[in-house]
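TL;DR need C-alpha cells for one chain.
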Amino acid sequence: MTRAIGLFGGTFDPIHNAHLRMAEAFRDECGLAEVRLIPAGQPYHRAQQPHATPAQRLAMVELAIAGRPGLVADDREVRRPRPAYTVETLEEVRAELGPEAPLWLLIGGDSLATLDSWRRWRELFELAHVAVALRPGFDPAALPAAVRHEWQTRQVPDFPNRTPSGTIRPLALPPVALSATDIRARLARGDDVSELIPPPVLGYLRAHRLYQTSPERL
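>> reply
TL;DR here they are.
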C-alpha cells in the first residue's frame, strides 16, 4: 500500500506544544506514515512578517519534533526566495510522490473560512485531501458559499487512504487555548512558558534571545 503523507504548514513563530499535538492527531486520525511540518518562508497572507527568521523557525521545528515518530521538517518554503503559495507547495510534493500516493493538507477552521481567497484554491482538491482542525462553535453555514459547497460535497463516510486526493474531513482535536501570539507576549514579559514549549525550543529561544523586549529577560 502506498504511504500516505500529510503536510502541515505554518509560521511556527515559535512552534509550541499545541502545534505538536495537532501534528500527532493529524498523523493518527488520517493514518499517515509521515507528517511534514513546513515553516513558511515569507508568508504572503500576513500583514506583519514573522519575528524570527525563516532559518530560526526551521531550526525550532527541527528541535521540537526530534524523537517524535512520523514527524519531519520540510525546508522547501524556507529555501524559496519569494512568498510560497500552498498550491505550489502541493504541486511540488505531488510531483515527488507521484499521482497515486494519498496526500493530505492540514488547515485550520479559520483558513477554511477564507479558502476562496487562496491562490488557485479549487486546485488544492485535485492535489490533496484536506483535513480541517475545527474549533468549538464551528458553523458551516457561515462559510462563503463556494467553500461551503466544497465542504458539504467532498466529505465521505469514512476516510481510508485509497484515493490520492479530493476529500475533506474534520479533524477531531481537543480544544487548546494556546497561540504563538500569546507565547511571544509571555516571553516579552519574562513569564514562565516551560509548559507551553518543548524544552529544546525553549533552550534555543534563550540562546538566541528571541521574542524579548530587553536583553536581561528570559
